[in-house]
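As a warm-up, study this chain.
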Amino acid sequence: DKFVKEYVDIEKESVEEDIKSIINNKDKYSYNKAISIMFKNEPFAINSDGYIEDLENIDEKNLYQYYKEFISTSQIDIVIAGNFDKKEIIEDMKASFDININPIKIEQEKLHIHNDIGTVEENMDITQGKLVLGYTFDVPYDTKEYYHFLLYSDILGGGIYSKLFNVVREKHSLCYYINSFIHRYKGTMIIHSGIEHENKEKTVKLIQELMQDMIEGKITDKEIDSAKKYFYYSLEALDDSLSALSDFYYSQKLSTVPKEIEELRQIVDGITIQDIQKVAKKGKKDLEYFLTNIEKQ
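Now compare it with the structure written out below.
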């Protein structure tokens, strides 16, 4: 039993090209590198694009064997959205997946444990420096506090209404772009920015000042209202995409306390500046990664 060699070779070439192309996308390269450093020895550090050295040992035979093993030992969850007959769909699915499945219990992703890595600089021939800051907040994703964390990151660097955008980019013109986002299942936050190489220290200092402001509760009603409105908009947009709706309900399945859309709206509606401030105090810096063309003296 094996796959068609020609098809496997074509896919291997395609994957190899995708991996090699990452070096030309400095935004993606810098993010991937920072993640591999910050989450070293954790499954989360594994690059989802794969590694070229692994491709060499893949052929049509061992790939097919892995495929059979993967299907027979994995928990299979199927999310279906749309207008359909539930009973009929279930029967069709059972007929389509008429295989013997004995899923292996997979350990749930653990929250990242803070590790003070410090500063890592990488030199490369690039025109724009890439700054990636990583923080640990230790906020579980299946708690109400997760939504406090979500709004915290959004107010800090989630959009054109955020502190990072308005202060670092607009007021001080220190970066080309800057944003913050969280890793839901790791309790961590990343700040990613494209800057002039000589502006690194100024940018880091200003980011730290803005994060300190949030620790001190310096958050306006307008900022928290803007973040809430964006969250509500995101919930409403789920109805426009069956794929997004499916992703939402599947993510809720992974939670120990699954919630309906209206429940989430009520949770976010009740979040206060004090809730955001409490989360802000949890942040601990793990990593400061800088991709630059300025060699250390």
